[in-house]
Each structure stands twice: as C-alpha cells, then as structure tokens.
Amino acid sequence: MLGTGILKGLLVTAKNFTGSYHDPKRMVTVEYPEQKTVLPENYRNFPFLVSESADDPMGTLRCVACQICEKECPPQCIIIEKSKDKKPDAAGKQQFYPAIFSIDTSVCMSCQICVEVCPFDSIKMDKVFEIAATDRFQDLLLTRDRLAKSNSYYHQIHPEEAAEVDGRLAAERKIAEEKAKAAAAAKAAAAKPAASVNPASAPAAPAPKTPPPAA
Amino acid sequence: MSCSDQTGLDAELLAFGRQSGPTVRAVHDQFHGDLLEVSMGPQHPSTHGVFRMVATLDGEQIVKLKPVFGYLHRNHEKIAENTTYLGSMPYTDRLDYLCSMTTNWAYALAVEKLSGQAVPDRAQYLRIIMGELTRLVNHSCLVGFLFNDLGTSFTPLLYAFREREKILDLFESLSGSRMMCNYQRFGGCRVDPSPAWLAAARALVDNFPRFLDEYERMLTGNEIMLARTQGVGRLDPAHAVNAGLTGPVLRASGVDYDIRKVDGYGFYPRFDFRVPLGAHGDTYDRYMMRILEMRESVKILQQAFKDLPAGPIMDPKAKIRGFRPKPGEAYGRIEGPKGELGFYLISDGSPNPYRYRVRPPSLINLTLLEEMCLGHTIADSVVILGSIDIVLGEVDR
Amino acid sequence: MSAVPFLERAPIELRDWFVQLLPGPLQWLTHHLITVVAILAVFGLFFAFTTVAERKLLGRLQNRLGPNRAGVPKFSILPWHLRHKLWGLTQPFADAVKALTKEDIVPTAADKVLHFLAPVIIVGFSLMGFAVLPFGRLLIPVELDAALLYFFAAGAATELAIFMAGWSSHNKYSLLAAMRALAQLISYELPLILSVVPIILVTGTLSTSAIVHAQGFWTFGLLPHWFVFTPWGAAGFVIFLVAALAESNRSPFDLPEAESELIAGHLTEYSGFKYALFFMAEYFGLTALSGLGVTLFLGGWQAPCAFLEFIPSYLWFMGKLVGMIMFFIWVRGTLLRLRIDQLTRLSWKFLVPLALLNLGNAAFWVLSAHWAGPLQLVRWAVSLAVIVIPFVVMGRSITTGYGPRSYRYAP
Amino acid sequence: MTLALILIAVLMLGSAATAMLLRNLIHSALLLILSWAGVAAFYLWAGAEFVAFAQVLVYVGAISMVVLFAVLLTRQNRIVDVLIEPATKARALAGLFVGAGMAALLSVAVCYTKFPALADAAPQTSVKEIGLVLMRQHGGALLIVGVILTVALLGATILAATEAKRQPEDKP
Description:
The complex is a heterotetramer. Chain B contains 17 helices and nine strands. Chain B is an alpha+beta fold. A three-stranded antiparallel sheet of chain B has the order 1-2-3. A three-stranded antiparallel sheet of chain B has the order 7-8-9. A two-stranded antiparallel ribbon of chain B has the order 4-5. The radius of gyration of chain B is 23 Å and the shape is globular. Chain B starts with 5 loop residues before the first helix and ends with a helix. Chain C has a domain of 283 residues. Helix content of chain C is 65%, strand content 1%. Chain C has 14 helices and three strands. A two-stranded antiparallel sheet of chain C has the order 1-2. In chain C, β1 and β2 form a beta hairpin. Chain C is globular. Chain D folds into two domains: 101 residues, NADH-ubiquinone/plastoquinone oxidoreductase chain 6, subunit NuoJ (Four Helix Bundle (Hemerythrin (Met), subunit A), Up-down Bundle), CATH 1.20.120; 38 residues. The longest helix of chain D has 27 residues. Chains in contact: A-B, A-C, B-C, B-D, C-D. At the B-C interface, α5, α6, α8, α9 and β6 of B face α7, α10, α13 and β3 of C. β6 of chain B pairs antiparallel with β3 of chain C.
C-alpha cells in the first residue's frame, strides 16, 4: 500500500530521536573543548626526538645523526647536519650528535617510516594534535630544541611501546657490556705476556677502548 | 551556444548531434529553442570533490554531458618513480582516501609478486580482516552520500557515519591514524592487533547487521526512493564490459565478475561468501549491491575472526631498507570496494620502481557517465554520479 | 463576558483597558494596531524559536546535539554559569545579528527593482495569512465572513514573488528554479483548496471561527468532534498536509532550493538580510498553513476533552500548532526529495482525483446524517470505503513498475 | 473616505498608464498586476469582501502567472525589445481618430446609464446568500463556465501530452 515505506522510515527516525535521550549509543556527540576523547595508544602525529634525561633534553639526545631517516622520508621533510665533535652517549661511547635536526611539519604526513627505519630508536611519534601556528615558516619548522622530549614523556604517551623499547635497549646494552668485558679480558690476557717482556716501558694503560656496539 | 539565426541554429543542432561520443538524439524542434549549457562544479555541493560536469540541457533534460576532471592531479605516479618502494606506501593511502587499507594491500601484493616475497598466514588473515572492514567503511560512506544527493537532510548520512566512525576508531587504535593507515608492508603487516582490539572488532562486526537492518527498514522500501532510483541511469551489461567497468557497478548490471572469486588472491578461497548480482543495472540495483555486499563482508569477517591463526605477522626474510627487487614487471590487483584496483610495476633492480602505474576503478567507472545520464534530468545526473561512487583522489591521482 | 474564565478574557480586557485610555478618534486605530503588533510579536518569536527547534530536533533525529553554543553577550546581567549553559535558546538572535550584518550583494546584471521587491512582497503576503486564524475563543484578529477565501487570496502572491526573485537574479540556476517553483506551487494549489472544500460543504460557512465552533462538542465528554476523526476529514487532512508541505517548499518537495542540483534555487543571488527575509517568509507561510490546518481539522482552540476546558483556549491552539510544526520537521528529517515530474504527476494524477472523491464523500456524509442507529455503522463503512479503495487502487497504479526487488547470487 | 477612493483610483490608473509606456515587458506585466490589485481594493472599499478576495485570488494569483509565462515563452530570447517603426503623420492621425471614437463611446455609456440612488448603507450580504443565489438563479451560467474551463484544461493537457509523445523520455 502506498505510504507504508515512508511510515516505516518515520518510525526509524522517531526511535533514533527518543533513543538520543537515554541510549548512549544513539548520542554520539562529544562537546570538544569541555570533554576530550581519550586517544588510543598507537595514535601518531608528528615525530619527536627521544632524549635520555629529562633535565637536559638537548644534551642527552639518543640520535647519532646517521641520517637514515632523512634518506628514507618519502616527502623529504627532515633536515639533519652532523656535528663536528663527538659527545659520550648513554653507554659512555663517543657518538656524533645532530647539530641541526629540524622537521618541516607543513610537509610531514606523519607516516612514521622514520620511526621504522631508525636503528637507534631515537625518533618516535608524538600524540600532540592541537598545534595551531600563526607563521607558516618559522612556527611549522620544528627545530631540535622543540623536537627533543624526554624518555619519561615517551613512557607517558606510549606506555607499552616505550617499555618494550627500553627492555630491548637494556638487553642490547648488557650484551655490549659482556662483549666489552670479554674483549677487555682477552686484551688483558694478551697484554700480560707483553707486559712481562717490558714492564718498565709500558706507559699508564689508557682506559680500555670498548668496540663500537653492533650497527 | 551563440545565438545564430533560426536556420543556422538547426544546422548547428544537427551537426552538434552527430559529434563523437554516444549517439545523441538529434534534438530538432521548433518548440525547443536554445539549449541551456550548465556547468556543475568543480565547486558544487554534490560532486564528491573537485569534479565538473558540463551538461547541455533541453529544458530539464540532459542532451549532452561532458565530465571534466584533473583538478586534484598530484602527479602520484611520477613521484613514485623517484621514491623507494617503501616510500610510496604512505602515498597509496592518499589515492582513495576512503579505503586506505585496501589500496595498501593492492600495492603490497604487487610488490610481493614482483620480488617473490612470501607472506605468513596470520598476516594474510589480518589483510582480509582489514580489507573487509574497509569495504564496510566505503560502502556505508557511499550509501550515506547517495541519500544526501537524493535530497534527505543528512539523516541517513549521519547514521552511516556513526557506524563508519566506530570502524575508523578501530583503525586508529591499530595503525595510528583513522584514514591514513599505512599499515601493510611487503611481506606482512606492521602492527599485531592486541586481543582487546580483536574482541572490540568482533563485537562491532557482530552488531553491524543491526545498522543495516535499520537502514533497510528506513530507506529501501521508501516509495520516494523507489521512484527516484529505479529505472534511472540504466547501464547495459555489454556496454559495461566493453568500457572495462568493474566492481559493484558492473555486478549491478548482472555481470558475474568479482576478483576475489576470479583470482582467489590472499586466502579468499578458504572463506565461503556469495557475490550478489543485479538484474536491471539501474541506480537502485547499484545501491542494493552495496547493501548486500556489506552483509557478505560481515560474514567473511566473522569467519576470519573465528579462525585467525597465531604466528608472526611479518616474514622474517623481509627487508625494510635497501629493498631492491630483481628487474622485471608485475601486476597485482584486488577487488577494492570501488572495483578492480591494480598496481603495475616495472623494476630495473634499483631501489626505485622504473614504472609505477595504478589502475583506478573510479576513473574507469566514470567513462560511461554520459551514456547513463542521457535523457534524464539534472536531479538524476547527480544521483547517477553518486551511485557510481567515485573518489577524486583516485580519479585524478 | 464574565461567564468566560479570567485567563480567557485577560488579553481582551487588557486591550480594551488600554484602548479606552486614548482619545476618541485614535481608539479604532489603536484597537487594531494592538492586534497587529501582538501577532507580529508572537509569531515573530515563534519563527525565531521554530528555527532553533528545527535545528535541535533534526540534531536529535541524527544522534547529535543541536546548537547549544550561542551564549549571551558579556555585559548581560546573567550570572556566569547561566550565561554558558543556555541550550542554544539565544541562537536565533545570533542568527538575526549575522543576517543583518552580512553584506547584501546585488549582482550587477540583476534587475534592481524586482530584486528588491521580491522579498518585500513574499513576507508581506505570507504575514497577511494570520489575520483570519482564530487563536482563541475571543482572540480572532479579523472576523471575516469569507475568511478562508481571504486566506488563499493572501497565499496566492507567493508564486509571483518567487518568480520575480528567480527572474530578476539574471542567473541560470535561479531561472530554472523559478520555473520549477511555479510548476510546483500551481499544481499543489488545487489539492490544497480541494481538501478544504469538504469542510465548507459540511459546516456551510467560510468563516474560520464558525468552523471551530462546529467542532465544539464531545461524545461522552471524551471523544471530540474534530473533523479529523471523520473518514472524509482524515483523508482531507492527509491531502492538506501533503499539499501544505508542497506549498511551503518543505522537505519532500523542496525542489526550488534543491541544494544537490540548483545550489539555492531562486535564492542563489540573495544574501544578507534579503535572504533572511525569504527564510522568514517560508516559516511564516508554514506557520500560517499549519495554523489553518489546526483550525480546520484539529478543532482550532477546542480542548480535546470536556473536563480540560479550564485551560485557556489559546494554549490549545498553540499546542496543536507546535505539534504540527514538529511533524513537518520530523518529515523533513526523514524523507527524500521528489523529482519535478514525479511531483507534478503525484499532484495531478493522485491528489486531485482523491480530493474530488473526498468531496463526494463529504456530500454523502451530509446527506446520510439523519440515518438511525445501526445505519450509522453502514454510513461510516461506506464513507471509509469511498476513500480507502480508490487510495489503494490509485496508489498501486501510480507505483506500477516500482517495487522492492529480490537479488540472485553468483553460482 | 473619499480621500482613500481617490488614492486607489490614482494608483490604479497610474500603474495601468506606466504599464503601457515601459519598454521592459516584465515590468509592465507586473504593473498590470498592480492595477488588478487596485480593482480589488475598490471592491473592498465598496464592502464586497467575497468579490475582492476572489479578484485577488484569481487575478493576482493565477492570471498573473499566465501573463508572465506568456511574456516569457513567446520572447525569442531577444534582449532588445520589439522594434517600432518611425511615427509617420498618417499613423498619428489614425491613432487620434480611434482614440477619440473610443472616448466618445465610453462617455456616452457613462452619462446615459441611470445609477440607482445611493443606498444609505452598503448591502450586508453573507457568503451563504451569495452561494445560494449563484446556485439557484445563476446555476446554469455557473455550469457553462465550468464546462468551458474544463474544456480549456483538457485542451492544454492534450497539447502538452502530444508534444511529450513526440519525444519519449525515460520510462519507469
């Protein structure tokens, strides 16, 4: 009979109308500034540089300026300049550090390929999405000081992922130490026969140089 | 259409009628007077993005319709020749921005065929899950937009978006971004979904049919909907096959061609699902194709969740950097929500592809727009365009 | 006068008290001026809150909140927390300020005189419709003998204004939309008037207050004698609703401003306050038509049950009016738009024949009024049959070729 | 009250005159409609509400549409208006002669008709009486008018239908 389809349609919208008052499933609006939706753990926006300690983020950057992410970034929006001198990193090894490390967030499409290819876990995805800027060039080009954030901040935004990364780094560091101790012991053993030959001429032995960790 | 005198006009009209393109009824009648040329778009509220239709009208009826596009051309294929294989993966999200997971899958499939890369079982199942979830997202979007073109004030669109947002929240908690997922890699997937995610996805899929029933109750039997879409934009199967149309638009005309059944790529042969076919090939059939396909996708998803195997999600031998496939060419294609989405790659051994070509189903389904719209009114042409389901990102690349 | 409860008499006595304060010759003028100002104030506010109600109701239909952000200006005396939480009630005033301050662009090629005149005429004529609606037992602006004819005469000029708007904008879309609007309005004027004729036939008068009085009684104090509860009245009411929707260019028939095809139809070249005037005229037209519907079919200011008489009559009228407007908004939130040829075909091939049949049905109803006892049931049955059977038959003929389909699956 | 009478008369005659003089057809059509509204104002002033509303409903509502459609559809999309040949002496004389003849005829008709003495008050007739009179004494005339209108309506639809047949568009 003509009109039954229309009546059924009206009934559906009526059910939605009454539902919107009591059924949370039928009232989906979130009033943004007052109520904020919680972001899922894997959410990613623009990258940031992880630094070891919170009090001196610029000094203790994990990044060693190997420029792999600069090469792999599809829209080429990362600009790195290697430093001339070296600086001890967390494991005490002398490493380069990025004198200039800036990401042009107007070009970056937050695809997190840089995070995947970084061998040192020094760049991770941030969760800040309220970044309005007035100037297109200065404000959107995030320089090193605005990119560097502490590892504790990393734990705060990506708890599981951060724990897993730290676990892996600690394990690697342990392996590196054992290898270093083994190498040192081997060197000491080799050095003992030489020492017995000319104990007087050997100068004060410099601190044992640990081999660089496996790339 | 310059105002020449009466006899000149007739000659011009007849010449006009015989121009190339499908046969145009020679409109020649004292009563008709000038034809009105109306250009709809590119800033038009209902052309799904920057797309322009130059329609020549005789009163309300369309005599000639010329689609104009290219406003969103971003030179995707040339850029891909200067980026590494992995670098192009995030760009494939931007092709058909409504279903990024399926486009990623098609690209990953093509590269795996090129480099002979194996994919573990769990990754194949995850790809099917993500692919079918994207089909739900795309079809619910399309159905919402179609009703918007038909003239409802946003109610069906917002019901459809309510369901789509739930699926996009799942994608966000898995891959990190709602629409730009960048989830597939050559040889598997990037993130292993947590059991909590799988439970949430299963719950969503189990009550998705409730949304479809509400939709069908509200709109499929609606007399105005029947009157506005049945018999409008009829597409004859032979023309569709000759023009190379694929996807729900082709199946609505009754041609049985679904690449999931034809190629049997991924683990689709293990799943039992049916492919709906239309009989009249008009806008109503195309709408019903999407609704029935959504129901089939829900069945596939339920089977996939039931027997999702454990195991690695990434083939151990897969290399992230320094990926240099051996020289050769490959064409990988999947049944995307809009039709056969294919990637044709030629590799010369270097990290960048020598040639990178996308087969865009939206563009190819668009070629027959004029033939469908002839004889109908402006209001119908907007509905027909909506029923073909084009996304300008894929049309212009 | 004193038999009527106080609340009923209050507005009239207030006006009379104020009028006799003034000197002689002015009294007649102020008497009517007060009525006009009262109508403008009440229905001006009613229009403002209908726009908000529409957006909030549509929002709730679509699982979202309607506007609730328009606050009160800073320097107002409201305490802080109240200023924030106002459920969007100040939205219409914010819209009004926006409409007033927006630049009013007139295209150079436009026909300036007509372009300016169109909104003036459309608002003027759609407001004139309120003069004959009986808002309460004593509240009727003008007691006209030919009230209904006056109402349709006032509504006739809207077509003229829409044509002037479409033609003077000198724009392809407006021209197409003006033609569509005319075809629609003219083809729906007939069912609108034909659906009202049975009421005149039964009550024998054109005056609206007499019609409302004719619907005044209740059987067993509970069942009101509104015309909508008679078979021919129900059919007339349905046809009236469909035609009213079409006359006020709303939901299933909002072809002239079909966004998806013709941008904003004949309003494309209007902006700023003129656009707001068109918008206002559409709502006044809608309110006037639903006011007429309430008066003719839903018993105007009559209370639904005898014991509810103590509530003042104008509240009943307002309640029914709000109910009908909510129905129109509900329909707008659900239904799709018809194409122009289907729209006119529906009117000429379906509504007009049904309305004519309904006329015959009302005649039969009047002739068979004196049938005794059991014959009353026969009278109801025949009257219902005369309407339902053609509705089903014609409904099937108009939807030939359309119908739900079953789909096969690939082997 | 006579001031209102003069005002309405001036409005009506003024709009009719300017309608004749204007070049733009649409403007003159609209002014013609304004003069019809003037006639309705006269009826109202005379107290015949029923006739006034009928006049507004029929003329301003419907016939104005017919006039405007006629003006729209018959114009051959010429922006420039109808060309009038230069006014020669013979044409002016002929115009004057016809005008004078018409004026004489009208004035004779006005002078010699005997208007009944001015009744003390406008006759108070209700709509019911008008209806009864229409149906009883003038029932025949009403039916004939009805038949003419239906014939006109059928003619229009047949004309439009045949035109549609020659150009069959989409079938449902």
